[in-house]
Amino acid sequence: MASNGTTHETGQIWSGAGKTQDELMLKDECILVNYMDEVIGHNNKYNCHKFVPGQPRGLLHRAFSVLLFDHENRLLLQQRAKTKITFPLVWTNTCCSHPLYGMKPCEVDMPDAIAGGDPKGVKAAAVRKLGHELGIPANELDASRFKFLTRVHYWAIDVGTYGDEAVWGEHEIDHILLYRLNAGEKLTVEPNPEEVEAIRWLGSEELKEAMNGKGDMPLWSPWFRIINERLLDVWWKDLDAALNTDKYVDVSSIHRFDTAPEFHGGLGNAKPVLEEVAKAEVAALKEGGEDQRRKVVLQAEHEDRIVGFVGRGKAEVADSAGDVKQGGYGKVPTHKNSKLDQLMRPLEIVSALRLKCTGLLENNVKGQTDEDVEFCDDMLGKVSRSFAAVIRQLPTQLGIDICVFYLVLRALDTVEDDMEAYKGREAEKQAELISFGEKRLSDPNCSIKGVGAADEKTLVENFGRVARVFAKLPEGSRQVIKDITDKMGAGMAEYVSADLAQGTVDQAAYDRYCHMVAGLVGEGLTGIFVASGMENKDLTGQGERVWPFCADPHTEPANLGLANSMGLFLQKTNIIRDYLEDYVDGRAFWPQSVWKSYACSNDLGEFALPTSHGAGTLLPVKGGEVLAKGVGVQALMCLNHLVADALELVPDSLEYLERVQTPSIYRFCAIPQVMAIATLVACFDNPLVFTGVVKIRKGLTARLIVACCDGPNAVHCWFRQFAEEILAQSDTCVGAGGPVGKRLKEACKRILERTEKRSQNWSGKQTQAQKVSEA
């Protein structure tokens, strides 16, 4: 067979000779595109063609279909080889394949090349594959004679070959190329048996008969059936014009078709979607032009991807003993541990009983005669069961102060999170956030209508009751709450119009966002503690990290670096855990400068695809299970990078806790921190982060709360245990041998150094207690 060598950018000669279909599936990098045929990245053919729960239509990529005619206007058809992974032994057009990423000459066409009707990349790919599949030498083809006509967007699952649980298929935007031989022009055709079973030249009427079941060509590819039924006839009847003029050239349209029902379903249970998109696209183009068309099409693509994630999640939840959670972001699975797993941990059960029966966390806010205070306490329990207990165990007045602070910020957060109430009125939302402290805190009759849902809606509708309690707080607490509300509202307003669909722009923006929504909370809490007289100004220290958005440490007020680090540790852990929820909601926070260094595309949702988070590389997951089939680990690399980033904040958090003097304030601060590192350990190197929300066991939660009640030594012991757990996995986790593994080790070692003395004290105390008990 004649050679058709095309080089990669590295200089390596591309050749399919001697390579199996499996090898080509892993070697060749397809060009990923969105529904507007805009390049968003690349991925191997294996991942692109895998149709499974989570990506029920695979990954959309660019393709081409060559229709090669002889001088008598007969079309050259091929029967795909029986070794082909997708749609073996079906008859189809002359050549159908993919332009590839990383080739020379470049096969990646940008929009201007397509709009100009001359996608040279696709044409170069056509020459390459005509050589590989049909043995047509490159020197017998003139790439400039390929006529690009239009594009077809379709998808199909190979149920015919693999049955109802098929996992292979095609999802492509197919660039249609015509080519015709001149009279007397010779073409060498030597089919590659690994690619082509047979070839045949057919005229128009002969093709119609063959596709109608007359003859020995019963199976036809789904894409060629679409081309033949929807487009080919008119071109073939006027082939001279189709080839030599622009009469049939359509560079702006992307013809979208769902294939016949026989190509639907599969393991991912894919259903029709494209023809509905096409209808919406036509309407949008008519109403608002190209900009509106693009907006509607890409939104439809995003929604379809989310449906895939959620559908996959429901299927997997049963296997992971989770349940489906309906929250503000929509339905995503919550991964919990089974009851049997919990029952196998007796120490956690004892801790849960101790917490429930012995009243370790008192409620010092309950029983107030002020009805507005009672309302605040009731709302606290409804909008945050996790924080309610740690707030209520504080001394009465401080507990009321913190309760009001929490409810004020929760109301502010409700305004920020509501994406429907202010839709199309973003400027009004920004004004509300900026003025919230000045306007709402001073209004005893404040009621915000039509914002939020469930208990949060009740809170903002009755916010005047919170404002009335606020007015009675000690002056120091009022000043802190007002100041932090103003700062946080202004910070939130910055992000109202920001496009966060793909995360924050970079690490600095990520840190700043976390400061605005959590670091400020840490600063505010510290201010209230100091104002109450229960803590001294030592709590307002700088710590190891110097944050550019905190005050200058040499001026007043003091730089609250420790408090900021503590808040950022909580927020970054939540952002890591809530990856899928946030992406589905369209407001994600993973920094683009980080995740794009690991991704193959420009879409953060790539990591939620089952082929992107380690499926199939036989990586161990929590509990010793083995992952299903797939080949990517990019998502886990990125996840571990962000875990290391969060883990580096722990020494500051520990230093903050060491400076706290009041036991109830210590418990208040320590419980969320120790929960955060437990959650971080649960997320570390865990692909379940990309299929839902990872939760720690309720029994472990109880045990950690009890430890915080036992004091600083017990807390340090737990931090040490979690750091040791991550350190033990840092040699085997994804990214262990690179910078991420190094950062993880260094962060863990610093935690171990910080906790060594107190942990030993606690361990010694426990050993002595055990000896006394045995005696």
Automatic annotation (TrEMBL):
Nudix hydrolase domain ranges (all copies): 59-225
GO molecular function: isopentenyl-diphosphate delta-isomerase activity; squalene synthase [NAD(P)H] activity
GO CC annotations, alphabetized: endoplasmic reticulum membrane
Pathway entry: Isoprenoid biosynthesis; dimethylallyl diphosphate biosynthesis; dimethylallyl diphosphate from isopentenyl diphosphate: step 1/1
UniProt entry tagged with the keyword Transport: no
One GO biological process term: isoprenoid biosynthetic process
Similarity comment: family membership: Belongs to the IPP isomerase type 1 family.
Designated name of the protein: isopentenyl-diphosphate Delta-isomerase
Organism of provenance: Cladocopium goreaui
